Amino acid sequence: MRTYGQFCGIAKALDLIGDRWTLLIVRELLALGPSRHTDLRNGLPGIASNLLVDRLRELEEAGLIRREAAPPPVATTLFTLTDRGRELESVLRELSRWGVPLLHESTGLGTFRTHWLAQPARALTDRTPDEPPVAIQLHAEGNEDLVLEVNHGVVHTHPGRVDEPAATLTGTPQVLTALLTGGLSLHDAEREGLHLSGELDAVRRILPER
């Protein structure tokens, strides 16, 4: 087993989660919930299949994920986070916050999946928590959709669509990311091609202050 051999909480943590791809696997399971091997491969473009198998085994041995059988009629293995694994969400939230300026400084766009916006979206603050719950649909061009559920001050996310969202935001990955992370105001995002349909107030509830 690889180890730094140091009696330090940071070093011990990195012994378990410091390898390449490991935290991104956790990101996928936090955003998607129980996932098949193929789901994880789709969200981790560039990872070799055998390396993903190795990382999943290591996470399972560390008690951070577990395997479970999908209910009938689907016959496949699902990977899900344990309670200990879910405790890493706060770690990833801080990494996401720390990395936001790097996104704003970037001049190019690598591979993108809409559900990667789950972490910055969950860090948003509902400005009117006493208002009724609303759902906001995100549609990034060429990608799957993501739903933001705003309920009593908390933002939850899940991939997919809802029948009657309060508002829908459609735009490029760059514009949607900049809007949700404070890099663009709503006005500037619309000038960059963002399309908003539905209730403007629903969107304003969660946008970062600039």
TrEMBL record:
Entry keyword annotation includes Transcription regulation: yes
Pfam families: HxlR (PF01638)
SUPFAM superfamilies, A to Z: SCP-like, Winged helix' DNA-binding domain
Record has Heme as a keyword: no
Keywords: DNA-binding, Transcription, Transcription regulation
Residues covered by the HTH hxlR-type domain: 8-107
Ranges in coiled-coil conformation: none
PANTHER family, sorted: TRANSCRIPTIONAL REGULATOR, MARR FAMILY, TRANSCRIPTIONAL REGULATORY PROTEIN
Protein name: Transcriptional regulator
Natural source organism: Winogradskya humida
